[in-house]
Amino acid sequence: MLDTEVPDLVTRAGGPTEHQPDGAFIAPEHPYVARTSQYVLKSGDTFVVNDPLGDINGFDDGLFVNDTRTLSQLRLTFGGRAPSLLSGNVSSDNTSFTAHLTNRPLPPVGGGFTPEGVIHVDRMRVLAGTVLYEAITLTNYGSTEAVVPLSISFGCDFKDMFEVRGLSRPKRGTIAAPLVSRDEVRHSYTGLDCVERSVRIAFAPQPDQLAQDRADYSITLPAQACVSIYLSVAVDAHKLAAATCSEPPGAQVAQPPHSSHPAHLTQIDAVRPRVGRAAVRAALASAHLSMRERRRATARIRTSNPLFNGWLERSFADLGLLTTDLPTGPYPYAGIPWFSTPFGRDAVVTSLQMLWLQPWLARGVLSFLAEYQAREDSAFRDASTGKIMHEMRKSEMAGTGEVPFALYYGGVDTTPLFVVLAGAYFARTADEAFIDELWPALERAAQWVAGVCDKNPHGLVDYQSTSDRGLANQGWKDSHDSVFHADGRMPDGPIALVEVQAYACAAFDTMAKLASRRGLVDAAARYAARSETLRERVEALFWMPEANFYGIALDGHGELCRVLASNAGHLLAFGLPSRERGEAVASKLESTQFHTGWGVRTLAANQPRFNPMSYHNGSVWPHDNALCARGLACYGDKPAAVRLLQALFEAAVNFDMRLPELFCGFMRQRGEPPTAYPVACLPQAWAAGAPFMMLEACLGLTIDAQREQILIEQPALPEGIDWLEVSNLRVGRKTVTITFSRVGGKIVASADKSDVRVAAVL
């Protein structure tokens, strides 16, 4: 997932990475680029990324608020030296970060000498709103008194997220001179968007010396005693009055297209930071409570395998971390650090992944996307009436119009997927009142899809960017080189991606069913006819008999891009192909051309532009694999779906129980772990949601809320899992617990005594 053509320049070193013309990744020469141990906390539109020591070094890390890096440096030193790392970890529910550190030999102060490994340092951090709280506790385990020279250095660069990712700007706003008091420093910046952003860094107790970039303490610590230092970093932002600031042409504020009230984007109330033990404890208690309440509303899964349980729990926790409470309801932000903001496609796919366990997430996503549905055409935003937004940004460069992403619609697949999610949500919940409320937005979305089909000479859903600063490719593989011909040529637009046609067919089928329920017989017939016509055209135009597979896209001249890519697996997930062709695709996805042993690659190994280190041309994406697993199960290859689940689980074990956005697509080698992609987001919402879609497919579970029943078809589980229990599974107002057990080589489902009917499908 990329925002611009620049995101191929996404970097973990603060400057652009390089790519060869074929998309190969070339790491910049910087010691931090290979760093995989970064730790993340998030609260609303605020997140912090730091290293295992708890330090922020100003590369791709920092404290970010509304897509702006506010705090770019935060380092703890003792006598000018960094402490030694014992361990650094985020809590299991993602609410706090703790680093355990110890001193290196301390310089003699007042005649005393403190050897290394005597002082234990507990550095605990938590986020609440736009305030970062930190407690630094020092304990002297030595037999004599120690004098500890401690310094906390800090800095604020107020860089836009796109600057952090490598974009250069010809002009920036104004950084004011820092204001320093006895226990607080205030940094501020007035952007070109006329927003003043401020950071207050406060300390308790009062430092011995405080400068604009450093707080110094000299701590006398008796033997076996401990002392704590507290700091808080509070961010506020407010729009300046028109009389004091002139906005540049093209300045934007993202707000609902049909609403006159501004969205909750830049205005952040000024906060006088509280500092001390009570403030840290209150922030921690609030964070724990928020995560606990979200987890309580979700069905729970337990298995006989502790490692598998750990993977699922980490995935649940990551989704809880990324889910943000917006006025329209909960919304999963796409990923950290680059995509901690609303994305349309990612949120819809994540909601589909989690629908059977937490349908409330889909409702929040549908509400938000309906609120921001395009009501007019805009070339700059790649918008047209009825289209569902691709992404929203709240940073300075988005606000000034330097990039078109304040509210951007350059995604061809989000609109049909929005309709598909609405239909799936209704089937899961029978929430007819909400669908009634959503119906005008669904009609507008379906009309947009139909209108695009009508303009295409082959009746397909296609795309071509109307913004010179927007995305050239507008499917989920949106890097510049992800769609090409079999000879490596880049296709002319408009481009019709194969998987998008499956989404559109499913959207028309959904509209036919929903229209029929509303008594709109003629509309239902029209939607059903459109679906069938589009399905026939896909079979006629995309099938490659010589390869027993579907091509990736049709270009603007009607020429098929005869490339074998994982996109075809999405056709299976949404039920487009005939049975025979679907089984052929499934067989190919299982072959070593695609399957690495860790998962299915985005591109078959014998294709042009294949590179296992590229972003989209040979890497492994967990969410892509989840959709492929769903497709494999739909076309009768349940064992292949189970093997895919097993492969991703084993990959997750090697990634500390947490699947990244993507990883490299090298073949699995005995004794070697999967190879990390160096700039992947972690956590990433649809990577965290992947195991749940795969598990749903393997269990063969279908929830019919209208009939208050659950159907289970040929359930299967990976080896090493003897039983799996799903509890607190809500169907309407009722709940049910289902246990899947391995009996005589088969998986057998049984339910507790409940009013929910659970039946096997033979």
Written account of the structure:
28% of the residues lie in helices and 25% in strands. The protein is α+β, with helices and mostly antiparallel strands. It has 3 domains: 38-286, Beta-galactosidase, Chain A, domain 5 (Distorted Sandwich), CATH 2.70.98; 297-699, Glycosyltransferase (Alpha/alpha barrel), CATH 1.50.10.10; 700-762, Maltose phosphorylase, domain 3 (Sandwich), CATH 2.60.420. Strands 8, 9, 12, 13, 16, 17, 18, 19 and 22 form a 9-stranded antiparallel β-sheet that branches. Helix 4 packs parallel to helix 16, helix 7 (414-429) packs antiparallel against helix 8 and helix 13 packs parallel to helix 16. It is globular.
Instruction: Outline the low-pLDDT stretches.
Output: 4-36, 259-266
Main beta sheet: strand number and arrangement? 9 strands, antiparallel
Number of strands: 38
- Summed up, the helix count is 16
